[in-house]
Write a structure and sequence with these properties.
The protein has helices at 3-7, 19-32, 56-71, 105-116, 186-192, 194-209; strands at residues 11-14, 37-40, 75-83, 127-137, 146-156, 172-174, 179-180. The protein is built from six helices and seven strands, in the order αβαβαβαββββαα. A seven-stranded mixed β-sheet has the order 2-1-3-4-5-6-7. The protein is an alpha/beta fold. Pfam families: Ham1p_like. It is an enzyme of class 3 (hydrolase).
């Protein structure tokens, strides 16, 4: 099925039940002005997939296929997280459940700060990187999922800062902007974030092949 063919179907399922992600995606899809109705999988009573992959790409594909299989519609899924080099890339694919309880942002942030404590020396910055992988499938058995990657480089603060966003946003510092991700207006964040960059690539793929 070509891009134009699936676009004509009228519906694209967003394989996520994460309220923070859904909010960001709905804003970005609105800006894309795609001629399709994007439906979060929760509206179709689709539960979360079991994310047992070993990489962002594997988990994104698992979630996209899961939503496409149950809905019978094209689906797009996001797998994203924070990677900190001094921790060997952790939390990585386990970002949402780093402290053990899935989606507990406060606990995850606290564990990250505690794990980084031995590495904080002489106020030297600790690098971190947000990663987003989008996987798009036209149907559950699509043999060629389309993958779009976005990366966002910054530093890890030693205490939360800011009231917006979700996940590790309060700890993710953008030195060039002098603010944390949680202090940024949503519109600004969506233009430069890992998720925004991956979505831009997805939009570009449509404009070049439709």
């Amino acid at each position: 099925m070509s891009n134009s063919a699936w676009l004509n179907q009228g519906t694209l399922v967003l394989a996520s039940n994460n309220k923070g992600k859904i909010s960001e995606f709905e804003k970005m899809f609105g800006e894309l002005k795609l001629p399709v109705n994007v439906i979060p999988q929760g509206q179709l009573n689709i539960p979360d997939a079991i994310e047992d992959g070993l990489s962002f790409i594997e988990n994104a594909i698992i979630k996209a296929r899961h939503a496409a299989k149950i809905s019978g519609k094209p689906a797009i899924a996001d797998d994203s997280g924070l990677c900190v080099p001094v921790l060997g890339g952790a939390p990585g694919i386990y970002s949402a459940r780093y402290a053990g309880d899935h989606g507990n942002d406060a606990a995850n942030n606290a564990k990250l700060l505690e794990d980084l404590r031995p590495y904080r020396q002489h106020n030297q910055p600790i690098a971190g990187m947000f990663v987003c992988v989008l996987a798009f499938v036209e149907h559950a058995d699509d043999p060629l999922p389309r993958i779009f990657e976005g990366f966002w480089h910054g530093e890890i603060l030693n205490a939360p800062q800011g009231e917006h966003g979700f996940g590790y946003d309060p700890l993710f510092w953008l030195p060039q902007l002098g603010m944390s991700s949680a202090e940024m207006p949503k519109e600004q964040k969506n233009k430069i974030s890992h998720r925004g960059k991956a979505m831009q690539l997805f939009r570009d793929s449509l404009s070049t092949s439709v």
